[in-house]
Specification:
With about 375 residues, the protein is mostly helical. It has two domains: about 120 residues, no CATH class; about 190 residues. The strands form two sheets. Strands 1-2 form a two-stranded antiparallel ribbon. The radius of gyration is 60 Å and the shape is elongated.
Length: about 375
Amino acid sequence: MNRDFEYITYLDDEWPDAPENEVADAPQAAVPRTPAATPRIGAARAAGRRTRAARPGMAYRAAADPGPSASAPRPQLGTSGPDDDFPDDELPDDELPSYDYSDAEARTEVLITRGRSTAAKRRLRRRRPASPRAGTPLLTRRNVIVAAAVTLVLGIALAVVLPGGGASWPASVATVKQQIEVACQNPNVASEPGQVNFACGQDTRKVLWVFALLTSGDDPAFTDAATGRKGLEPITPSQGGAVAFSLNLHHPYNSASPIDSLAVAARAINSIIAGATAINQNGGQVVQPGLESNASNCRRYTGSSALLSRQGFPALCAKPVTSAAGQAALVADVYQQWMVGAPAREASNAAVLYANSDNPGDARVQAILHDITQAAT
């Protein structure tokens, strides 16, 4: 083992004295040798014991120790001995193995096998277990249950918002609705002189297609041989002509025309509700009361029996008919006067269709539509 390796291994500030260097560099300051001693590889150290401050954890021979001799050979390097039973953490100062530390080769072997006692012990860092992935997996049992519940709620909401379960009105109803838009453009369909226009009101004009569906099956060429009624909104030709006169039509009334039939029906329905003022044979005015001219009817339609009366005008309900139940009751009464002699059941059917105009899937509506289909065949 050469001396250069030793100097590389030890730091200069850890060895306060280095006689072997002095011997090598300055022969005149050589340390006296023992005559009987066996020549050594490295230079001998000065006698004495090192202090703990100079080299913590290391011990040296006493001053009286002359060093290794032939009678007491030093332990063989690389062999196991009693020192191998000590732990590697730190050895007691007084129990270090008896190596010859003045021998450079011995000191080097101690450093390699034992290490420096002042060096910090290197510890293996304990690895932490892998942290769970950020976030929650999407496909968990809880998420599936929540998604199913949300889907169920949405299905119920759609069933409420879009009633009918796929049921619809006959295709002819859409055609009649378009024709109503045209017929209601006539400014003379409102009642005279009260100017009530329930039949062509934006939210109440559905009464026209309900009546057409029930009375003619939406057939403009309908003819009832028993009563002589004709048209989409069946009425006798003479009555239709009389009503058409008040509409100021610019052409002769045609019962086969859907537009003429609807306009005549609109004026007739409004007159049934609000009454009219007619001229008698003597030229005088005759006030004809309507359904709203009756206090008991107004109670059914509006919840109040109060009437609004004016000279020369038929009396009307003091409150407008706005509730669904009140309008349904009014439609049933109008039907019975429009279709004189019709059974009460048909009037009730008219009220059901009117109240469920946005719900063709209603069981009662489906039953009525079935009866209409059977009657047509």
